[in-house]
Amino acid sequence: MSYLGTYAPTAKPSETPQLKAALNYDFSIGAHEITCGEFKRIMGTTFDDRCRGKDSDLLPVTRVTYFDAVLYANERSKREGYDTAYTYFSTAFDAAGNCVSMESILFHPEVEAYRLPTEAEWIMAADRDWNPSAEWNALNSDFEPKKVCSYPRIHGDFCDMGGNVKEWVSDWLGYFRDTTITNFVGASDGGSLGERIIKGGSYRNDPSSIKLYNRGDVYIVTSAAKSEYLGFRIAFGKIPNAVWMRRDGQVRQNRVIPMAGASVVKKNMETYRTKLVFRNDVSGNLAFVDYVNGSLSVFEFLDTLDSYHPDISPDGRLVAFCTGMEGVSGKSDVYIRPLSENYTKPLKVKANGNAAIPRWRLLENGDTVIVYVSDAGNNKENSAFKSKSTWQVKYANGRFGVPQKLFDGAYHGGISDDNTLAVTGARLLRAKVAKPGMTLANARDTIWYNGEQACNVSLANDGTKRVAFLDFGGDTGIDFVGESYGTHERLLIADSTGKLIKSIAAPVGDSFDHTEWAQNYTGSDPDGGFIVATLVNANGTHKKIVLINVKDGSILDLAEGDELWHPAIWRKKYETSKTSELDPDSAGVYLRPADEWASVIMRFNMELLWKYRDSANVAILGSSRPLFGISPSRFDKSFFAVNFGQTPNSIYMTRDYLDHYVFNHLKKLKYLIISLDIDFWYKIDGPNGDNMFYTHFDNYPGYVYDKNHDYWKDGVPDGLLEYTENAIGSSDESLYMKDRGRYSYSNCSSWRENPEIEMDSTYYDSREYLLEDCKNALISIIEEAAKRNIRVVGVIFPQSPAYKETGAFGRYGLRRSRAKKLIDELSSLNKKYPNFLVMDENKMGKHDYTDNMAVDEDHLCNGGAGLLSYRLNELLLSWEKKK
User: Fold this and answer.
1) CATH code for the domain in which residue 508 is found
2) pLDDT tens for each residue of 629-641
């Protein structure tokens, strides 16, 4: 039995409660972490500078991403004649050679191969001799990794699980339940950020902070993350009858698997702003994939509502659905809900009777409406069909208007934008065609396709008025195609008069079902466009959702599962300025698919920069502390603040972001607020240090493109904002943009009574130059701001008051006596630089930020952000009054 998580009240939400994992299979796991020598023998190289030194072969390899570990495991499997445990669609590498993107990665636990251990396997091994004090840690390592298994051990089968370097495991990060699961392999996906788990302690951690149940690092961990204190060990063996747990705690032995990566979807749909929604017929719930973030998380709404026929709103934010199904008469209601992972109760349309098969429309007057029918049953009998009706209801500001009847007949296949055509199909392909000067209400009902059986009718909303449908191998279809075919084996397309113009064959052995045109609100090639459908195999199982290219008939697999129904796909095609001459493959590309959190934050910082460059007069920069703890919306209306907080951060990165971007483009800038994170002033400048402009962003197309154009100092070109907005981003966009850069998902917890100390407080004793270097970088910022008549506030953020009981100033150490001296030195800079002021909100732990104002030991939550923002606002107002 393996015990994951804990009941400890101070643990993180993702670490509680305790889950028991029973493993009923055999597996092996490495006695030690993969070494530099082992990695080089399999991969031919390494990305870790320490691996290039003399006698380095026995050091644990570090600076490896999760993807690097996967490539190692796969290559080792192939070399020894085994199948591989991981599959993927494509890879991307950074300038150092690390694999930083692996689209459509899938772990196959049923394959006997080398792989990363699951968290349950790792804990089972580590728990046999767990003692972080008897491992390489911050108290005995001199802050550097040691050769594997070199710490003197009394007993035990495994080395360094509680120290030396932290380790990747195979699982996505999810949440636990107080239950027992056999053959547990973690969460089914990593959510919108693609979060992963790392285990154990490292040479830089105090042993008191290393817990068996810990699952992460200081910040969010994604597959592309790498660190000088992070490595991995390898496992071998298959996992029979693997069980996943959804991030919401629901256990499952099956997964809905995204097949096409975000870049592939973008290549087809011309934008990352694409969403796929469908019914999981096993659960009866709706699920969706948002391709904008590249991590391809499948999120399922857990409701008691049986959900059919979803349709995505024109702006992509909402989904409408019904509780009845096409071809079946009877009770049905229409609901809408946000297409978001944040649960919101569905909102019901108050229809005059039944409501089925909803379709969004954007009217010429700008109103957004939902069209639905009173009954979606069999439409073969003429009188029965005409007794049903088509309705419309306006939706605005979170409310529905009063439903209005449009016309008789249940036309649930769609209404054209010009209101001249409506179609439907549930046995017969019916059309209502308005002649010039007529309305659809007065138009005559017609039957197309020679009265033969047809279904799954969908009207293109791109202005072409093409009609897609499926048939039952009827004579009309056979005559058009020129050969016989079976039920639903051909997708047929007719023009606005009902004349057949195209046929697309299903893959051999499969048939189509649930066909729907992709939503495209900007027009398209009259012969092109896309249709989403399900593929049905010979057993009648809807195993796949596919995207059909109408132009060339090619088919792209989007998702695979046990029973997937009623897909709908939405895209937002964008248009940049016609005068723009920017390179679309470089401009605004500040992020890669499935990238790490640090890059996601910077991607939105760049969007904020280009969006508000002509408005902002207050800029907030620094680490995750201002990112969480300063709210631009709380400032007085005379201040337009933008939060450019970033993690991980250094004072050098703040300096360079100011020099490259902020000082050049925020023309109205009057005030600069930066975090003085003196407890992690151990960071080093330059390409071999901690300045992410050198170590991370120097090979992203967008930053390189900006650099090659001198960061647009002569003027921002037309289209750069639009390119940035429509490049890959995150489905959690509102978390970064709603409050102009503050990360709004900063829920309150506590300061923690036993706060972590990530670095030994004595680290600076022999490295005083590090503090001096950071201080000089700060002075260069102050001097540059003074040239531009900009005032600078250096904020020392509050941290847990419990640090008063330790020798550390804060989370990353620094002797308290040295911290007090350093704060005095920084405060005295005001004498030479009157445009600079230190705002010490920590006061050596004697601050007034209460326990319910904190996320953890060194971050403010929403409540604390309100107080600190108020105080900053008052300071700026006092300066304004002095002027």
Assistant:
1) 2.120.10.30
2) 999 999 999 999 9
